[in-house]
Amino acid sequence: MFVLNENGDIAEDAASSVPRKGNYVDRDYYQAHKANPYLGLYIGKPIISRLTGERMVNFSRRINKADGSFAGLVLGSLKFSYFARLFDQIGLGSEGAINLYLRDGTRITRHPYLEADVGVNIAGSKTFEGFARVGTGAFVETSVRDGVRRLYTFTRVGELPLIINVALAVDEIEAEWRGKAIVIGTIVLILSGLTILLLLLFGHELRKRTRIQLELARLSQTDALTELANRRQFEDVYKRTSLEAGRSGKPLSLLVVDADHFKRFNDRYGHAVGDEVLKGLARCLLASVHRPSDLVCRVGGEEFVLLLPDTDAAGAVKVAEEVHAQVAALTVGSSGIGAGKVTVSIGSATGITDAGDLYQRADRALYEAKAGGRNQTRIASSQRANYVDKPTFRIVGS
Fold first, then answer.
1. pLDDT digit string (tens) for 149-186?
2. CATH class given for the domain over 90-216
3. Cα(364)–Cα(360) distance, rounded to whole angstroms?
4. If we measure between CA atoms, which residue out of 139, 132, 137, 108 comes closest to residue 121?
5. Which fold has domain 2-80?
6. Contacts (Cβ under 8 Å, ≥6 apart) of 385
7. Does residue 141 contact residue 127 with C-beta atoms inside 8 Å?
8. Contact indicator for 41, 60 with CB cutoff of 8 Å
9. Cα–Cα distance between 397 and 375 in angstroms, integer?
10. Does 38 score more than 50 pLDDT?
11. Radius of gyration of the CA atoms of the chain, in A
């Protein structure tokens, strides 16, 4: 098994702690996965390995980056010598054979093995048309390969694009029918068991990789301390929401929240207590919003952002009031920080058309709140308004 990177080079090698050198950008499986992100499991045509010189067949799956672009693929190979060892002790008679085909009619391998048979396409022949009509069955037909009349017992291999058949000469079957019937049943059972085992192994690894990719994608957009959305997620959602507000004409509000005198908590109580204060603020902010579309983010240090779609200035003020009320009740019992010790300053801005400058306006309003004595909210607007009772709300010129 290998992991190939997006350039076709070997990135991980199951057979060596130091990956062997090799580039497979020209292989059909690499080109197929790069061109089609929805291809799923791909089984390639028979090839000769560049590393070992042996005949083999490859199974591959695409790997995506977090944004869905091509990151490479996982590649598993089965040597033809494996099939030879598997079937070597099975008695097929002098004219019997086992064939493994792709569903397009390409023969992957044959037992007894003949190099000339590998890669031959028999699509359109009577025998292959019989295989393709139904998933599993048996029929008697004359082989296009050597003219021998054979009984073909065949089946599709699970959900894979593979067809396997056991072909026994009719004359030999009639001479020794009972013994051959047992052999056929045993072969089909063995092959079915191996198929299930391969599917389970591939399925387990692919599900594990999918879980890891999903978890990495989640972690890349989550603040590790507070488990709120981080700056990266905020910027992505903010961009989409701003465009939607511009198209729909519905108001979009933004609150920028900053903990007052946060450095004093770190200096007096230590960073561990400072972290507890930030976690408490995160809980207060989450408790202040009630719609699934509202987004609470930690964008850095002690600064947080509340993105409020379809919310006008009055609605944003109500949310800011709720934030102040929640924070006023915040306590950190382990360090003796009681209710009212932690306060926040808030800058609020609302846009109706293109809200691209919303963050800058709210940030300027926040600094006005800081300069005006903290523990208050300032509202960015084109006009100024009077103070109201604390927590204070002031209109800041945009």
1. 888 889 988 888 888 888 888 887 777 666 677 788 88
2. alpha beta
3. 6
4. 108
5. Beta-Lactamase (3.30.450)
6. 379, 394, 395
7. yes
8. yes
9. 19
10. yes
11. 34
